[in-house]
């Protein structure tokens, strides 16, 4: 890890060309800090939320910990630029934010000496051997909250069991999301204390954003299907499928009816990684569609179909022409909406009648569908949901999600769902029931963390 530091620096500089946030305070990655930490009367509680999803999950936990420990100071660390940008929303006056230290003994020692946290809370999956060992040596409790471990990750860890087992065993407590996660973590000797459920069920979506989205959808007057948190390769596959739904006129009536519905849907793509937005916009135009970006909508929301047709017709000469761009009959270029903003997933789910789950149509493990359900947006998911297997199966059983074989079936089934008012209403109610049934983990977890911290101060926490 020490020898790899120059490679990390090079990677950060390259990543920073697309996301400047990675170039901010790079010395923090190596445990070097320019400003002293101000004195504070209460304990410093360190929470590590590596990326965007973990940071959003941490929001409800931070609020609950502030209730349990009113005088706490939050130290929030991250590994990605999107996570750090989102984490600013959690900070109050006096709180601290920094990059996660690179996993060398020196960097982690300097990090702990500088900030002096009373407890460290790692969110979901972030286990680093040197970090665990350094915390253990300093007798500072380190716990894993909202923990998850897929079968794939377990197999990888078992191949490096000489490294993974001591790292998991060196934690003071682990609270998994599900019983299946608990069983897998036990195989790595992790000190599993209790299964409380998933914090993300307790997160309340931005109702104002949802209302804005639903109002805009009603104004548009046509069904909206969203590709939520799409991954590289999935957008191209969707666009090619949509092009295929404009076949010759000699097809049978049933297929023609499906094609008409698919063509009349307003498609919305929201990439998982914001640095890919420009590339996805270029891809959309290359495939013969017009693109309307969220950043261009303004306060009034997306354009109506009539306005979109005018805009698309005006830009026809600047778009790579295909059978979709301009037919002999003078059809307008179909417009794809593109979500290019951060922190507005509730708006996008409010806009959508249903969502296709990104990362599940290629062997990438899928994305979390809990936020979609909380916003009342049913999900169609592909075969690959191993990163969130239990949540996916629970949503499927509740009727809040539908499993499909591939992306082509997802497009076809979405077209059927959005025109079936009764089926859509049933699925939306299932989303609400699913979300409500799994709430309550946050308070249990906050109390458990407080207990570990108090026990540590009293010298009762296991240290080896």
UniProtKB/TrEMBL annotation:
Top EC class, one word: transferase
One of the record's GO molecular function terms: Kdo transferase activity
Localisation: Cell membrane
The keyword Cell membrane appears for this protein: yes
Origin: domain of life: Bacteria
Function: Involved in lipopolysaccharide (LPS) biosynthesis. Catalyzes the transfer of 3-deoxy-D-manno-octulosonate (Kdo) residue(s) from CMP-Kdo to lipid IV(A), the tetraacyldisaccharide-1,4'-bisphosphate precursor of lipid A.
Protein's name in the database: 3-deoxy-D-manno-octulosonic acid transferase
